[in-house]
Amino acid sequence: MSKKDLGLLILILVVGAIVAIINPRFLLPINLANTSNLIGLFGILSIGQAFVIITGGIELSVGSVVALLGTLFIDFIAVRELDWPLAFVLIIALGAIIGLVHGWLITRLKLQPFVVTLCGLLIYRGVARFYTADGTAGFAFGQNFPELEFLTAGRSWGVPNSFIALIVIAIVMWVVLHRSVFGRYLYAIGKNEEAAKYSGIRTGRIVMAAYVICGVLTALSAIYFAMYTRSISPASHGQFYELYAIAAAVLGGFSLRGGEGSLIGVILGTVLLQELQNLVNLLGIPSSLNFAVMGGVILIGVLVDQQWGVFRARRLMVDAARKNVAGAPAE
Amino acid sequence: MNYSDTSIAAITPFLSLENVRKTYPGVVALDGFSMEVRPGEVIGLVGENGAGKSTLMKILGGVTTPDTGTITVDGTAHNSLTVEGSLGSGIAFVHQELNLFENLDVAANIFFGREPLRAGPLKLVDRSKLREMVAPLLKRVGANFSADAQVADLSLAQQQMVEIAKALSIKARLVILDEPTSSLPLAETDKLLDVIKALKADGISVIFISHRLHEVERVADRVVVLRDGMLAGTLGKRDINHDQMVKLMIGRMLKEREKASEAARAPGATALAAKAIRTPTYPSRPVDLDVRRGEILGLAGLVGSGRTELARVFFGIDGSLGGTLELDGKTLVLGSAADAVAHGIFLVPEDRKLTGILLDLSIAQNISLPNLPAHARRSLVSASAETATAEKQKKNLGIKAPSVQTRTGTLSGGNQQKVVLGKWLAMNPKVMILDEPTRGIDIGAKAEIYGLMRALADAGVAVLMISSDMEEVIGVSDRIAVMHEGQISGILDKDQFSQENVLLLAVGKQPK
């Protein structure tokens, strides 16, 4: 765990302690369970985003993808009555295809990630609304999927299964990002794509793979979100989720220029964001201020981090200079 | 003003440094350094990388403050300069990396931020006045381009002229040229040296920093040699010669300049063959070239003659628009650099920091990068395997760094270049292409890199060296291919080597 991550963890604990002191309901099992459920849902989404950001790209369409794939998933199992495992596989495959198309447009046709995924944001939202004719996708009365519901919205030993899913995914993705050959390539490309290419790395394929990973994780979280809300109005479902994901990554120490950030960081970023949401609710802050609080905290966080970096660099210099002076007479 | 005043002005130095000392944490960058620059004098400033040249420049530019010492500019003594003060007293810099806006034209660059404005609230730029102001400046530097030309369309030498014109526009009295010729081909270098002589004739002083000693020989009135932050010596006009400078720079005479063994080498079999290859830059000019095993083939030519473009095709970065590549007699199709690497064709690129290495990664991570799967078990990177490979290359190449975990960004140019070499040597090269391998590298490291190239060739590797440094091309190569406007204009064998022949071919004429 890097110092940055440790700082973030301390911040999370301090904020948590303050909220708990002001409103002890923060620590009620029901509140913790709800919050950790949301951390699970947004965490999966944010990990996907992080893989794209590490390459220096950005994926703006994830909110719309959550809406579209969520709508399709509910439609598949509730209206078309597909077996849910089949629907699950289909949705994940669709997520992968969306990622593949984005990656292809970006690496082969050399379009900018911002542009490609911004178009995706608009397209998938529109398709989702058209698919339901702007209606709401939901389950009919009495429709039940016990296994699916247990896996997505259920709890084990009081812990939401979505949170457990996040932990499992996080461990796997940590290994991929920080230990695997592929992860090293991702960092190398994020730092300097040209130099990576000149080292014989097939950069196009690697970047494309990052978008596919993002697509798959987004699809997975789309299913979790769908099973959490159980009814989806495609006009608003998942709106701004891409920004939650990007915010979590930035808070977690990712640079939008690429090549920087850790998996633990993005998880902690997600935790802090959800804690802030919870704080707004628990401290009686008008919920209309929700976004303002989030934006403010992110800004302060980034500022402190940057200033801390400057401060440390300066202190190192001063230390070294002092050592130099102290050592001078011996010369 | 009376007569005695002017005569004093003629001998009073424009700039003098006395006992300047500057320390950084852990290092003494300049130690009791003194020098002076008289009006109209061209000073050649030489020294190995790390000798303190950059620190000296920073002090003169007012970017950094010396710990002790006096700087006298135009008769006024200072403890340190400020950026404005330095500029205001007429000290101008032309840096190795040019500071031009490529998307603007020449005139806009020269007077950037100081444009003449039309009257009125809109403050529009007065284009005609601007052109009038620029014209005499361009004339003084002998420019053969117009004030309206886009900087991006100019050659490197022309861009340097723009920088010098910019320096003149602020009424510079001392122009400091930092490695101005390191990226220039011969013909353009001559132009630049002419500009320096013109400046001198106008009474402007010049400090010319260069690793290319024969150029220093040609223009300098006096040579100041820095070594380890100290003045190693000063050479007057008559004493300036290559060996003296080298002796002062490294503190001893270089052993007999390395000459490739005169014994005729039996030419090996052709390793890499280009047959009517067409690069994207010169689509209508097919290139035929053979690189043989066990030889160093020098590829000379002017900048822009298509040498780097050819190397990019050989390395799979650019696709060929026609023709075929053959490796050991078999047709080779390269879709990417990864394909080239898989076939043992490696490139040490021209731009080390942009394409050669990843500055933020460690030495070990850079060296393992092209061959990472070999340093991994079940797709997981093995740090110990990585370290072992890197340690071997570090020892082998004499990379000077605290450890292989050191970030490559903190290394000197020569050591960075060795990391680039190390990552390829750790694999099995068949064809090694080196594009300007010694640019910006100090003399000691240069000799080591020449030695390495020779060792590779002796081990049966086909070595292709692109270089704009004439001494280097002639001193190191077994054969020299010369390019002119996208085509091979001729190939010289050892007995035909001469600067004149290379130059004739480079401008498209026949050798003698």
TrEMBL record, chain A:
It comes from the Bacteria. It is found in: Cell membrane. The chain crosses the membrane at residues 6-28, 35-54, 60-79, 86-106, 157-177, 206-227, 291-311. Keywords: Cell membrane, Membrane, Transmembrane, Transmembrane helix. It is a multi-pass membrane protein. Pfam families: BPD_transp_2. This is ABC transporter permease. It comes from Mesorhizobium huakuii.
